[in-house]
C-alpha cells in the first residue's frame, strides 16, 4: 500500500507541474521576475528625491563642536574650545585632531587663538559664522577696505587657514596698505602677536565678554568643589545648581574644566 501511495503522489505532482500549479525551480535564472510594486510612503513627499550619495555625515569631532555650541545659547559668540571636544571624545585625541584638521582643510571650520587663554587653547568657529562677523565689522566700523576680498582670501585660500598671518602675506594677497591693516586691527579682526613682529592673530568680536563669562563660571564651579569635604560632586547634582556670575551653561563649563585638565571626571 505504501508503494502504491507513493506512486499516486508522484503522478499527482507531475500533473500539477504540467498544469502550472507548481512553480518549477529557476535553475538557470532565466525566468522573468514579477514587477516590483512601489508602495506609497508619505515621507517621500516630505523629503522629495534625496540622493544618498549627496548626504554628508559630520565627523564625531565636528558633531561634538556643534553640540557644545548648541548647549551654550547665551554665549555672545558661537564658539567652543578644542579641549572641550576631548572631554566628549576622550578615547583617541589623534583621531579627533585628524577629523578637525579635515574640517579646517575643507574650509567649513576655523581655529582661533583667543586672548586670555593659554597658547594651546584654541577655539573653533564655523566659517559661515566668521564670514558673517567680518560683514558685521565692515558695517560697524565703516572699513575703507574691500571686505569681500579679505573675507574670500582668508576663508578660501588654504595658506591663510591658520591661527595667524604675517603682515606681508596679507598685504600682498589683498593689496592692502599699512593703513588697511591698522583698520583691521582697530575693528578687532586682527590682533598683534605678542612675541612675533609683524605677525597677527585672526580675531573674533566680543571675545572679551566670552572669556569673562567663562572665567567667572570656571571659578564658581571650582569654589563649589573646594567647599565640599570630598572635593567632588555628582554631575547630576552640579547641573542642578545655578550660577549667578556666568551666563554660560553648567554643562558647557564642565566640558571646559574636564577637557582642559582643571578637574577630573
UniProtKB/TrEMBL annotation:
Biological process terms in GO annotation: positive regulation of Ras protein signal transduction
Q: Does the keyword Transferase apply?
A: yes
Q: Does the keyword Glycoprotein apply?
A: no
**Region named Disordered:** 20-43
Q: What InterPro entries does the entry give? A: STK19-like (IPR018865)
Which terms does the record give in the GO molecular function aspect? kinase activity
Keyword terms, alphabetized: Kinase, Transferase
In the record, the note on similarity to other proteins reads: Belongs to the STK19 family.
- Stated name of the protein: Ser/Thr protein kinase
From what organism does this protein derive?
Answer: Mucor ambiguus
Higher taxonomy: Eukaryota, Fungi, Fungi incertae sedis, Mucoromycota, Mucoromycotina
